[in-house]
What we know:
This protein is of the alpha+beta class. Helices cover 22% and strands 37% of the residues.
Amino acid sequence: MFSRIDHIGVAVEEIEPAMALYRDSLQLEVAHREVVEEQGVEAVLLDVGENHVELLAPLGEDTPVGKFLAKKGPGLHHVAYQVSDIDATLAELKESGLELIDQQPRVGIRGSRVAFLHPRATQGVLTEIVEPAAGAGAH
């Protein structure tokens, strides 16, 4: 079902101080930076081998990441798994009885199609499934 871990999402208050840690101190290379209006975040992907760390800074307090930060503070936000067919995967997950946040995929970073499973269904871990945009490959 899942081909690999696509990225680990980390909620941060602000991108630049987080970049000082991840890019400068930990020496991870920036792969992509984008504002994803639909999800209310500025996101930065940093390379870790074939996978990524995704830094997520909210565009406002009344966004999903803004609410997460207010409730839990900065830190691990989600784990994302790559899939080749998100529609089939969502159908299979729904059929197995797992609670989905997204019944249909939405647009994610770099034009990917993404959907989230509810943490209640995954032992407290917000889980994202990602189908990369055509031509984006595994990276």
